[in-house]
Structure formats: C-alpha cells, structure tokens
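Try this one yourself first.
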C-alpha cells in the first residue's frame, strides 16, 4: 500500500483542504495517509483512519529551525513513499526529502503568495522573497507534481514544471447533507442572520460588513451578523470590537471564532445570506474560487459577493446572488435589505446556487483529478 505523508508548517492537521478533502479522498482511494501540521501542543492521534501528528512550533525566526527539524524527524519516521507539502515555508523539508532521501514530492500551493509580499513585515518579506524568487524556481522543476488551488496560481508554476494541476477548493457535498442543529435553530429563530466564514481582515471586507450591519440595525433590529473565523491581526480585531461597543451592536454582531469544518454547515443553514466581500486587491482578483462562496451555495443560501472578475462571473452564471462594491457600505447595506425584503427572489437565488454546486462546483470532481495525479505517479 502506498504511504502518503501530508506536511505543513503552519496549517492545522485538520485543515479543511488538507485533511477533510485531500487526505480523506486519498484514504478512501486505499492509500495509507498521515498528516503532519502545526498545533498549539504536541499531538498524536488517529482520525477516520488517518494518522495525525501535531507539532507545537511556530513559523517565526525563533522557532523555524526547530519546527523544520521536528517536521523532518516525524516525516522520516513515517517513511512515506510520497510527501505532499502545503506552503513555501516547507520547501527546505521537501528539498531534503526529495534529494537526500530520494522520495516522491508533491507541492500544493494554496495561495498566490507573491501578492502577499507587500503586506508582510520586512523580516518576513525578505524570507518569502528568497523562497519565491530563488528556491521555488530552482527546485520546483524537480518535484513530481505541483497542485494549485486555482488556475490563476497555476499560471506561475507552469513556468517551472510541466506537471501542474489546479485542484480547486470546492466543498464535499456530503458535509452539507446533514440535518439542522435544533439548539442553533432555536437560538437564532427570531433573527435575520447574515454570515461570514473565513479569515477576518480589512481586505476581506469585514469592517465594511460591520458598518453595514450597524446601518441596517436601525431598521431591522432582528439583524444578526455571525463572524466565523480568526482575526488575522489583534489590531484589526480591536478596531472591530471597539466599533461594535461604541455603536452598541453586541446584540447584532456575534463573533464565534474558528469552528471545526463539520460545524460550519449548521450555521450556514440558519442564515439568510452568505457574504464574501473581498477587496479588489491583486491577490483577490486572481482568486476565482473562495471556498466560502461554494459553501453558501451548497446550503442553498443567496450570496452577496464582491464584483470581482472571476468570482462575479460565477455568481452571474449561476444566478445565485448579488454583486456589490465591497468598499461601499451603502451598497452593501442596500443589497442585504433587498434580499431580506425579497424572500422569494432570495430563495430562488439560493436554489440556483445549490444546483450549480451539485452539478459542477463540488469536491467530487476534484477528488477524481487528485486520484489521477497519484495514479500517474504510481505508473512512473
């Protein structure tokens, strides 16, 4: 049986893409799968037949070498046939395994990291510039395959390697087929719930969404914005909570933090609108497939999304929601009010989105492509 080890320096081993999609799909295909990742404390466990190892070191200058050392120690102990790693920070470990241990290596690129450089600290920017401008072009040519989260990212890596495959971060249908949670349903039964899932940052339109909620709450006291995810900086978190407190929005905005992947559909189901208001940065203009968009669609909810080229095309073709300027609080609030006051139209949009996910935008289609990559690897 082929042994696969997934490796990550800064993702949790139970990360949605790494564990719930790729690792579980490969396990289902009959492979022996282990996942190494970052956790708050050392962990050794087994979940759904997949070995989980958590390493309690961070990707920062003080602990990075220790992290790499522990990652490699655990990886070599597993003695896998294929090592599948998930970010640029893991590149030194992948190079070691490829050239010194002569293992098969797959590089899985989740984001267009080049566009994140301007927002990094000087120290982190120098480190990533070295990885992206020197290490990646030099060593990606030797990796057995490169997987990317969308076609935009794939264009960069096709310069270095012919074997590049976009495996889009689409939702697995079975996760969204469960029943409603009676407790959650009861808790929010009298509220008009708007939901956001994912990283909480200025460029993701979170503060604009909070401001829009404040504006709407003057007319709709039942409005409730649920924020599911982690704040990317404490500074932005403080800005949001200070605004909420100043405007007495504690009853209208609820921060739930990071929740396990299996819990998320329970909150989407009781929501009336799903939001994905990414700013038109270079990074997000290239991101055609934010997972949250398809999760809302899978649950039959109308979406309020940024009018970005790639994402806008999906929403317009599926007729599953409204597009707006993510920086315009007035337009955001008007769009939310329209969907709340047009329940039949909102339901129609939601059903259109659900149909699009069932027929096109689901992990089952990606799973077939992932299995083909590994099958081709076995043939070589």
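Now uncover the answer:
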């Amino acid at each position: 049986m082929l042994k696969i080890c997934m490796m990550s320096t800064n993702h949790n081993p139970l990360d949605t893409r790494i564990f719930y999609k790729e690792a579980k799909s490969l396990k289902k295909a009959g492979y022996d799968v282990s996942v190494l990742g970052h956790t708050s404390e050392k962990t050794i466990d087994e979940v759904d037949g997949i070995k989980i190892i958590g390493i309690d070191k961070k990707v920062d200058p003080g602990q990075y070498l220790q992290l790499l050392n522990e990652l490699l120690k655990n990886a070599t102990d597993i003695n896998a046939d294929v090592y599948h790693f998930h970010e640029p920070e893991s590149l030194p470990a992948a190079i070691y395994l490829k050239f010194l241990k002569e293992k098969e290596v797959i590089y899985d690129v989740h984001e267009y990291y080049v566009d994140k450089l301007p927002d990094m600290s000087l120290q982190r920017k120098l480190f990533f510039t070295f990885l992206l401008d020197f290490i990646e072009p030099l060593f990606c040519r030797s990796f057995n395959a490169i997987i990317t989260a969308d076609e935009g990212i794939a264009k960069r890596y096709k310069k270095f390697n012919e074997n590049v495959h976009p495996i889009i971060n689409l939702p697995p249908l079975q996760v969204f087929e469960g029943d409603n949670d009676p407790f959650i349903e009861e808790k929010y039964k009298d509220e008009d719930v708007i939901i956001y899932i994912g990283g909480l940052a200025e460029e993701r339109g979170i503060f604009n969404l909070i401001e829009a909620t404040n504006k709407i709450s003057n007319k709709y006291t039942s409005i409730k914005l649920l924020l599911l995810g982690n704040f990317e900086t404490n500074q932005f978190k403080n800005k949001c909570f200070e605004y909420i407190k100043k405007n007495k929005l504690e009853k209208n905005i609820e921060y739930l933090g990071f929740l396990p992947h299996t819990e998320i559909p329970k909150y989407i189901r009781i929501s009336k609108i799903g939001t994905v208001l990414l700013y038109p940065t270079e990074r997000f203009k290239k991101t055609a497939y934010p997972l949250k968009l398809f999760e809302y669609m899978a649950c039959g909810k109308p979406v309020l999304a940024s009018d970005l080229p790639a994402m806008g095309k999906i929403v317009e073709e599926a007729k599953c929601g409204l597009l707006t300027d993510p920086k315009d609080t007035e337009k955001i609030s008007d769009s939310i009010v329209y969907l709340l006051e047009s329940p039949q139209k909102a339901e129609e949009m939601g059903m259109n989105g659900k149909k699009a996910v069932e027929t096109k935008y689901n992990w089952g289609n990606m799973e077939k492509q992932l299995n083909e990559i590994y099958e081709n690897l076995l043939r070589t």
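Discussion: The longest helix spans residues 122-139. The chain has 15 helices and 14 strands.
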